[in-house]
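Is this the right way to post structure tokens for a design question? Let me know if I should format differently. Anyway, here goes:
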């Protein structure tokens, strides 16, 4: 299974770049990951980019109004997707104005990473860490503790 993380805006903060690099490196042991980033261009253009870039993938839109799954729920979903032969999952992170209704309507799932509104770079680090954590859970490795 391949993960695509498609986001608006490129990380510029050092802590975010470092976190992204660390979890991208860790994930290489478990799965394929593609990061696609686009410069902020306004909600309509951002939305068109996200939809075009995720064409054919199972789309998970990250939105503050979405469901906030637990790590175990996420792991169960990933295991199910793998067992069902899912090829590609695209996680969509919007720009400063969020997602328009067209992106939300095209989503297979809408998730929230937190009840808090997260800065985009921080959301990307949190997302990568959770994908890593899920893969360690599925492998039975000790990174995750309940």
């Amino acid at each position: 299974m391949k993960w695509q993380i498609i986001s608006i805006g490129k990380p510029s903060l050092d802590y975010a770049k470092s976190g992204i690099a660390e979890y991208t490196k860790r994930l290489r042991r478990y799965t394929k990951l593609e990061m696609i980033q686009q410069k902020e261009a306004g909600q309509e253009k951002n939305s068109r980019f996200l939809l075009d870039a995720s064409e054919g993938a199972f789309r998970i839109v990250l939105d503050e109004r979405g469901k906030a799954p637990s790590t175990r729920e996420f792991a169960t979903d990933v295991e199910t997707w793998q067992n069902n032969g899912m090829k590609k999952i695209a996680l969509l992170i919007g720009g400063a104005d969020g997602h328009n209704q067209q992106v939300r309507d095209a989503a297979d799932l809408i998730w929230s990473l937190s009840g808090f509104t997260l800065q985009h770079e921080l959301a990307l680090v949190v997302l990568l860490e959770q994908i890593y954590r899920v893969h360690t859970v599925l492998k039975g490795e000790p990174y995750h503790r309940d």
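Format looks fine. Someone answered above. Worth noting: The first strand starts at residue 2 and ends at 8. The beta strands are 2-8, 32-38, 58-67, 88-93, 109-111.
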